Amino acid sequence: MRTIGGDSLKKGWKTDFDSPGGGQIELEFPASIRPTSNPVCDVESPTGLVATHQLIIEIITAEEHVRSTGSSKNAVPTGAARVLRTQFKIVVTEREGLGISWDEEQPPMYEDVPVSPPGYLTMTDYVGEDLPPPPEEELERMGLQD
Asked: What is the pLDDT of residues 31-62, one digit of tens each?
């Protein structure tokens, strides 16, 4: 196991302590892989070779006391802290756009597309016996009835 990316965020979250359930904290962050870490794509081969990736989020919360007359810059740590850790399986693939070159396989040009829809040379009406009506129980009733 090896780490192919990481960061530490100390600001940028939104808090809502009036929401149901005792409050809510939201944080949005960009996630990326360092290109210099030479990452491999997710793979699982019949020979037993497996490469998978996990996004691990670790949150450290610390309790502090703030005097009602003072600012939050004068907070005093209480020493109580919690570490919250969660993992998400992610799939790592090749970079977008590095597949087949458009020079080798490009979509058809406008002048190469044939006229559509194709013309029909002949159309004939059905000539044969009339089909029997379906049984009464198979018919769907339609009307203004409740």
From this structure: 888 778 788 888 888 998 898 888 888 888 88
Say if CB 24 and CB 16 are below 8 A apart: yes
- Of 2, 62, 9, whose CA–CA distance to 33 is shortest? 2
How far apart (Å, rounded) are the C-alpha atoms in residues 83 and 20?
Answer: 23
Taking the C-alpha atoms of residue 34 and residue 89, their distance in angstroms, rounded to an integer, is 18
Place of tokens 């190469």: 112
Check: CB of residue 66 under 8 Å from CB of residue 78. Answer: no
- Show the tokens assigned to 86: 């969660």
Q: Give the model confidence (pLDDT) of 103-129 as tens digits.
A: 667 777 777 777 777 677 777 888 888
**Global confidence as pTM:** 0.49
Cβ pair 96, 121 in contact under 8 A: no
Which residues does residue 44 pair with via DSSP β-bridges, in sequence order? 50
